[in-house]
Description:
The structure holds two protein chains of two kinds.
Chain A: H1 2-28, H2 31-57, H3 65-85, H4 98-110, H5 116-140, H6 149-171, H7 180-207
Helix pairs in contact in A: 1-2, 1-7, 2-3, 2-7, 3-5, 4-5, 5-6, 6-7
Chain B: H1 4-21, H2 24-53, H3 58-64, H4 66-85, H5 91-115, H6 120-147, H7 152-177, H8 181-207
Helix pairs in contact in B: 1-2, 1-5, 2-4, 2-5, 4-5, 4-7, 5-6, 6-7, 6-8, 7-8
Amino acid sequence: MIETIENGLQLALTVVCITVAISKAYFSRSRTWAILAFFSGIWFLGDLYWVLFLVFFGDTPDPSYITDLSWFAAYLFLLLLMNSVETEKKKMSKVLLLVPLFTIGMGVYYMQWGQYLTNIIDILLMSMLIAHSIHGLMKLTERKNRKNRMLYGTVLYFCIMEYGAWTASCIFEGDTLANPYIWFDIGLSLAFVLLIVAVGKAVDNELY
Amino acid sequence: MNYIENVFICLAIPLFISIIFTRSTVRLVLTFMLSGMVVCLLSSYISTFLSGSLEIDSFTASLTLVPIVEELMKMVPLVLFILLFEPDVEMLPCSVLMIAVGFATFENACYLAQNGAESFQHLLIRGFGTGAMHVVCGALVAIGLMLLWDKLWLRMAGALGLLVVATTFHGVYNILVSQKSSTAIIGYVIPMVTSVIVLIAERKLEKNSNLRQD
């Protein structure tokens, strides 16, 4: 029951994100908003497919290729989002080599439950997302212009919530508020609202 | 037993003959329609092979596997067209839509051959629903390609992402229409409503096709 409510909340927040992003993309003619619309749109469709499967068949989709693909595509659009606000390319710090260590370690742990291929793709995409967002945050401390900071911070927050939810789902069971998975997933849902604010700031930053 | 090859021959040969006797834009449109039918036939073979290999029944395959195969296959003629002929961006929406139309036509013809043509009401709803669904999926890719066209990385990643958008939309549609009564009708209506929204969006975008460069 709690998980269904939480899924409903996530669907509702993604709809808000899609609506705001599409209207902003239309009126401001900004590609960044269009990419946010695609990101939230594909996430919404993946979630909807998952929820419909649960409602009609009482189980999660097996094989879950469609939902996996939709989440991979969402990560891809998130990467494109960060790329689209980037004004100058700068060499990545060597510290960021630690990111794959974390993602590979976690991926190997998740392989006990999930498929090898999907976990490998997750490792690749998450490594890029985390490395890119940390790189963005590190780079911004050196510059006057810091309005993109919130976008990089939100993407990093999104990744942390994802890893939290994945790890919690491996350890804890049960459809109650005592399950940390529910809280991490609520945190993930809030990322969609934060992204609206963050992209707004980043686009303003480009205009003025 | 459903002899889809026979249905294919009946539909494809007139199109093939007309392709020989026509020129320029009409030929291109007919070629894309025919290619839509070819990829529909190939999708059916691939889906059957994969569901056999993965040991899943045809109903589960229609919900979890078929949308991926069909949307992926619909991209094949488009990708070949882009790689071989390097067309103008303006030609892409029409080509994507004609592939989708060919695909939906052949799929509906196979459905008729398998299930008969007695129920006018159901076929009317299904015709609009399935036709609109394939056209919407095609239009999603087309609009996205127009919006995200100028840079190579956007073109590649955007096309991949949009393919997944179309796949998931198709998957949601298949789940809804696999249910009974009102849920199935909602499933059939969603692509129709979406196609109206896409049509309005396309008209608006035609006026100002290029988004501001971020």
